Amino acid sequence: MNILSVYKAKVLQIHPKSLDILLKLINIVLMQLHLVILKKEKCILPDLIDIYTNPHKSNSEYPAECIIFSMDRAIQLHALLCSYFENVNNSVPVHVLYRTSSSAHQKAYNEVFSLFEDSQVSAVYQKNKDSFKDQLIPILESVSAEKVFFLVDDIVFTEDLDIFDFVKFDALTTVVSLRMGANLKRAYTTQKDQKLPPFIPDAISDKDKLCWIWKNGELDWSYPLSVDGHLFLTREIIVLAKNTSFNSPNTFEGNLQGHLRYFKHRHGICYQKSKIINLPINKVQDYNNNIHGTIHQDYLLDQWNRGMQIDYRALYGFVNESAQQEIEISFVKRNGLKED
Are residues 93 and 29 in the same domain? Predict the structure, then answer.
């Protein structure tokens, strides 16, 4: 019986001093997998150790599923979904957890979802401001795929992507990112330049990808627990989500950083160029003081009601310098609608 099996069987009965010693030994073993446990966590460790020592393959027909967070930004969600289905080969099911502040915004969402009723898109309406966690957990538990990735509604896919190529790496030893790329030399959230991390030559055979260790990066390059296109093991993220306090997408991502110790030693993998871009043209929540653009969501709602859509195709191939970047957007008449 190996040391991890012993831990899984005895962790709840072991003496605190002995547990400290055992955790040090477990760290030695887990470091070989680019994992680490730094302190006692009676609630979470048994579940994580079970995942780390008893991996299992999903019977799902899909290698991953996607969860999107949205609020009062139907026209931006439309751009994301359109760019996703146009650019992603072997697309996987998408779950949208969304909230609205008015019936007008709800009507716009209904129209967006009707456009994708023949696609793999399911919508879950957030009941109230404080129900986010209570509704996200069941969505995560409904995911039958082995892996899951998150997106927010102000993202656009700017490049082609094959899902099977994206999900093929071991999620216990790597965090694969759609948003990172060698083009990202500035961090928008801090308004600072950022150095590229020390990439590991020949760590992977794919010449179109880059590899580094998250703890060796800075700013965005040291931020594995992002909900902007990072790939996670479904079982693991469920355990973390259940043991994290949050009530919004922002606090979900922010408070997940309390579990950074499990991820910072893992390899990061990304494409040479970012596959997605986040367009922070507005702000719909008051949970933080993040910088953002000035295009109000009600103005965007008016554009949608006039039969317009964001010209998301104009962003295809755009080389962004930061994961989030304010760039000018334009509008075109929505597909199937006539000019005024």
Answer: no
